[in-house]
Amino acid sequence: MLPKPRADIAPNTAEYETLPLVKPTGFREYDARWWFGVPGHEKPSELNLLGVQALGQGMGTVFHDKWVSPKVVVGHDFRHYSQSIKYALMTGLAQSGCQVLDIGLALSPMTYFAQFALDAACCAMVTASHNENGWCGVKMGYDKPLTFGPDEMGRLKEIVLGGTPILRSGGSITRVDNMRDVYLKAVTKDVKIKRPLKVVAACGNGTAGAFAPDALREMGVEVIELDCDLDWTFPKYNANPEDEKMLHAMADALKEHGADLALGFDGDGDRCGVVDNNGEEIFADKIGLMLARDLSKEYPGSKFVVDVKSTGLYKTDPVLKENGSEVDYYKTGHSYIKRRTTDLEALAGFEKSGHFFFRPPIGLGYDDGLVAAAAVLQMLDRNPDKTLSELRDELGEAYTSMTMSPHCGDEVKYGVIDEVVKEYEGLKGGEILGRKVVDVNTVNGARVTLEDGSWVLVRASSNKPELVVVVESMKSKEDMQALFREEVKPRLAKWDEVGSYNQEV
Question: Which is catalytic among the residues 129, 335, 462, 473?
């Protein structure tokens, strides 16, 4: 039995090599993420390999508590430390009596897919997703296609930090070969694009580079590879299709090669970002609306789920109304939207961050960047006389900001948001920039809607020490900028705990 984990162990010491280090803040709302560290970085590690082993023991205990078969698919993303973390995690899972199926280098959706392909109840994907180099984490689940929520994460945290896992005999670790080929065949088998399309595939030197170009070619399009060589130093930019640097690189490559669109994939391949034929980014919530309009014609009466960061155009869209489609706004977070989409038996769920969740007959219910890419290509195939920008122009006018994230410590961010929510709730009936506040949705932070349909959103990040800010204007780009610069930014600046932004409009 491992000693009870501690949070105060310094790297480069004997204790670091002999005791488990687990910082409590790494247990997020629906997955786990810690700063593992990179050589030469001043920020100390929040987790060591013995801590990962303890995490595996705790995870296995949770799986047994749920009375499911303890058969666990495990994969890892392409970071220089991910494979080591995976082995430590698998050791802990096996010690807790789990039958571990190691599928090797993987995308998160490949791990979810393997649950179905290998008839495994549980999964654990070693990835920090789009977080910068030095972060590590685990996405996990026991009820496919769903992943952990707050209840499961709370129980896992209790077991790991309390040092109370239950170790069992019968555990094993088995390597599974060729899952990549099985997964890619399944993703591409029903996608045969007839329209000639030239596509930039951008992978930010992350894991998707080993999957996305081959998948897109098999779908029938010409592929221009952009940063698809795997490089765990991520030399150019973070593999995040919401990051300005990645989006600008996608636009530049598209213009250089005369491509029809660019598709960008994050570090673990569960998200997809889109740049249109003019080199303009189309935020994922608007891509979701375009897909919903297209799919509602194929599947009338379909339901769709979107997160609270998404455009208000879903509620007013005439095509969705004509086809009898309903739209439900819910909490941001891949686990939340995935679960909500399943519970409502919706055809699809969309997140502004680029997570797309397609249920049968399109997908299996989890977020998959390649399935999302296929959906975009099929939409274009069904509209052969229109470019992506022309399909975008058919939407109503709305000016939506990029997602902006000011630093705010994990220990204090929820307290800050509670106070911000109180302030915005007190504004009901009042005004922001000369417009009446008509609604304050507090399902996830505060989404404050004004009388003309414009809105601002402030919430706590589910996976990083940050807040999340999005604004949308129904008037102009300048008004969208004013909503941020004159309303949200000054309001948040009143709290000393709120630091600098990763990007601003």
Answer: 129
The domain made up of 14-177 is a member of CATH 3.40.120.10: yes
Residue 13, judged by CB atoms within 10 A of its CB (0-12, 13-18, 19+), counts as exposed
Domain span(s) for CATH 3.30.310.50 in the chain: 399-492
pLDDT given at position 39: 80
| Domain ranges in the chain with CATH number 3.40.120.10 | 14-177, 180-396
* Encoded tokens for 265: 């994939």
Active site residue 462: no
By the 8 A CB rule, do 204 and 233 touch?
Answer: no
**Superfamily designation of domain 180-396:** Alpha-D-Glucose-1,6-Bisphosphate, subunit A, domain 3 (3.40.120.10)
Give, in degrees to the nearest 5, the angle at Cα 49 between 48 and 51: 65
**Is CATH 3.30.310.50 the right assignment for the domain spanning 399-492?**
yes
Q: What is the model's pLDDT at position 170?
A: 96
Whole-number Å distance between alpha carbons of 284 and 273: 6
pLDDT beneath 70, residues of the chain: none
Q: What is the 3-state secondary structure (H, E, C) of 376-430?
A: HHHHHHHCCCCCHHHHHHCCCCCEECCCECEECCCCCHHHHHHHHHHHHHCCCCC
Query: Could you tell me the CA-to-CA distances from 346 to 299, 310, 424 in Å, in that order?
Result: 11, 17, 31
How many other β-carbons are positioned within 10 Å of the β-carbon of residue 409?
14
Amino acid at 286: K
Q: What is the pLDDT of residue 41?
A: 86
* DSSP class per residue in 303-337: EEEEETTS-THHHH-HHHHHTT-EEEEE-SSHHHH
